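Comment thread on ticket #2218

A.B. wrote:
> Attaching the input chain for the structure job we discussed in standup.
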Amino acid sequence: MGFWQKLAALILPPRIEDYNVLWLYVRCDRCGEIIRNRVNLTSEASAAAYDDRGRPTGYLVRKTLVGSRRCYQPIEVTLTLDARRHVVEQAIEGGQFVTAEEYEAQEAEES
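C.D. wrote:
> Ran it. Output below, let me know if you need it in another format.
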């Protein structure tokens, strides 16, 4: 992310569609490719636990990610969310969670 983009991110409010979005960054164990994936917490999170009134108290998100450049190894991601849809627990098979900075460094390297 360039200087002006970082400055704009600090000054400007987040876009409305970004409020219920979580970005996943994972590295494939087989080829090392870093994959970015958008999770819509409104439509992709399934209620997994309920209180005595029938209201959701926890959500579950399961995603299978596949890279596009080097191999086609499936990466299974499971996220457990609380009632406010904040990540409480995360698990991954076939890869590792990485940071957005690592993803950006890979993109800059390949450009």
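A.B. wrote:
> Thanks. Noting for the ticket: The two ends are 13 Å apart (CA to CA).
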